[in-house]
Amino acid sequence: MTATRTERDTATSFGSPITRSEDERLLVGDGRYLDDLGHDALVAAFVRSPHAHAIVTDINVDAALDVAGVEAVFTYDDLVADSEAVAEAMPLLIPHPQLDHPRTGYPLVPGKVNHVGEAIVMVVAKNRYVAEDACALVDITYEDLPPVVGIETARDGQNLVHDDVPGNVAAHLHHSFGDVDAELKKAPHTLTVNLDIERSASMPMEGRGVYARWDTDENSLTFWTSTQTSTSVRAAIAARLSMPLNKVQCIAPDVGGGFGMKIVHPWPEEVMVAWAARKLAQAGISKEVKWTEDRREHFIASAHERGQLQEVTVGFDDDGRLLAFDFTLWHDNGAYVPYGLIVIINTTTQVLGPYKPVSFRANAYSLYTNTVIVTPYRGAGRPQGVFAMERAMDAIAHYLKKDPTAVRETNFILPEEMPYDFGLTFQDGRPLIYDTGDYQVGMDKIKKQIGWDDFPARREAARAEGRRIGIGVGAYVEGTGPGPYEGAHVVVETSGKVKAATGLTTQGQGHQTSFAQIVADDLGVDVRDVEIVTGDTRRFGYAVGTFASRGAVMSGSAFHIAAQMVADKAKAVAGKSLGVPPDELELRGGHVCPVGVEPGAEGTMPLGVAAVLSNPLRYAFDEASKQATQFSTGDTDMSKPPIAEGEQPGLEATGYYSPPRSTFASGVHAVIVETDPLTAEINILKYAIVHDCGNMINPRIVEGQVHGGLAQGIGGALYEKIAYDEHGQMLNASFMDFLLPYATEVPESLDIDHTVTPSGLNPLGMKGVGEAGVIPVSAAVAAAIEDAEGFPITKMPISPSDLFELRRAHERGELPSLSS
């Protein structure tokens, strides 16, 4: 039985803001990312489609094969000739009953390209330079088809991305509670708001990459890939190559950012590189093949997110209480839907935020376009949902001439109403039930932090100086820690050091530190004596992955469970030797001690000695093993076997945590902006955040996660926008044209505070934090700009040129004025 956090009164590490242990290695250049590996491997490059929508009528690779240094050139026909399984369409990772027309891509295009950047031919050569040169010599003939670009073009249905998908509608997702039509009919007031969130994309420092090594003697494959889910991509590749799972191993090395894009698996390139390594090894050419994505490939061949058009109709009373929330959205899912409907499920459920409308209805249409696929990007549909709700809240406040925070407070779910069941289904397939939260406390804190009550006077003083400043607020609830499970293995070595592993992967979240803090507490050792390994299937073979702010909740809980099992075993082993009942022992200072006795004193046992005694041996091969041989254990009860029934040798355990459902973090952001009256430049003057992720393992890491999320949120509000022309050509596929926030764009005046409402769904009372910083930023920034300018802001991101044009429209009377 595992103890809850409130029962663990000997904590020494959990909750401490200690410095991350992994940083020094990374900062001094000792990181090992994908491209740091496999320097002797053959290198792959891909011929990618320059057309958004076309039939491939002919492929001629003869000239490429003649290039010195080229070892192989592969097309889809080569896959079919080798294995039907390899040639099949990529898997639909998350099926859904309302996903009526799922379509996925292929490892190489079988005959029709559906977006610029799709891989058609793979070239393998001695280096990337040769491979790229050979790619340029591949001659492909195309027959152009009319491209479908943008949501409005997709939903008119005149041209189709996939001939057998009517209206380009991949799915119509719908759910509701209450009677929306009846509530709208009787509501004292109604409003309709039309909103637009542009397409964006995650831009990790490291793009995708995979390096595969085939062992001919063992008929086995080991591959390294920059992924968020090493165990799942291992299983996927094993299935593709028709191999036993135990003959395939996957390792995620240091990963330079994921942000959701690297949760997709397997990528076509992962299939191709793994398959090519086996193919070339069997031909006696080479056992190793590697591919590393360049930045343009990342733009045109990985994944995007965010793009939605939204229509929100609300019915409300004189106090601003939501009687009806009718939400329709059209989502651009790109050419394929390998990750299912997760983005729009999150949008249509997390749109509810911390509020309790009397009735609710959501209709989401996921549409195919001839553009790059859309999969989760940090926030994963939640920023769009929060934008819809928070913009509606501000519209209600303007209409009623009420304080925007007062309207929100009127609709808050109260602590005494928890757990709050909406009667809907969340992305984990489980009920949408908020477990804990106190949203009013968060609002009270944020108003104090940002100076909400004093701001009207500050705004008027700025206006007198010819300056425009505005204030905005955005509240959210984030579903975190979805299942189905994660596991962990913990072992105490005879040195007293602890080795622990989880299948969950790491992309910079500080897992090596925070997980070590949990294990160190449970085993009573110094956190520096705990080594954590993540994302290596050789160390832990069963896992789900890193996404949806689930690392701490899922693997953190699993580490706690496994470490508690080890602690119980250590007490049993030591108690037998010390003659003390296990329930009178505790683990402190690297020792097993009777309660109240100092570590190292007489009558205590070093944890390493307990590890020795836990493993009865026949042979003495070192000093430690001498203590564990059959004549040295001191066991006088000869009626029992050395290892009790049901026990296993060694001071180790494997534990799994599987939650009944997701837990729900929450928070509120507030921001003050200034808009230049001449240039329309938008500057953030102050930003404040109040966040509730339950009990915090390491507050420093929590704040780092919030900082990083905020930076990406600012990018989504003011800078990041993927631009396509009507032909499906990306117009800004480089960092010269795609804008990202630098350190200079992240506000210096950043105030972070926390509320703590522990979750009862996991043993440590934790909630997730990884995506929190990004979720409400566009909504809060839009509200602040709106407040500064006095007219509605309904489309994000917004640039100075966008704001300039909105001002002109307002001057022409095309945009209504809003009351302050």
TrEMBL record:
InterPro entries: Ald_Oxase/Xan_DH_a/b (IPR000674), Ald_Oxase/Xan_DH_a/b_sf (IPR036856), Ald_Oxase/xanthine_DH-like (IPR016208), AldOxase/xan_DH_MoCoBD1 (IPR008274), AldOxase/xan_DH_MoCoBD2 (IPR046867), AldOxase/xan_DH_Mopterin-bd_sf (IPR037165). Its EC number is 1.2.7.4. Gene3D superfamilies: Aldehyde oxidase/xanthine dehydrogenase, a/b hammerhead (3.90.1170.50), Aldehyde oxidase/xanthine dehydrogenase, molybdopterin binding domain (3.30.365.10). Residues 630-656 are annotated as: Disordered. SUPFAM superfamilies: CO dehydrogenase molybdoprotein N-domain-like, Molybdenum cofactor-binding domain. It comes from the Bacteria. This is Carbon-monoxide dehydrogenase large subunit. It comes from Spelaeicoccus albus.
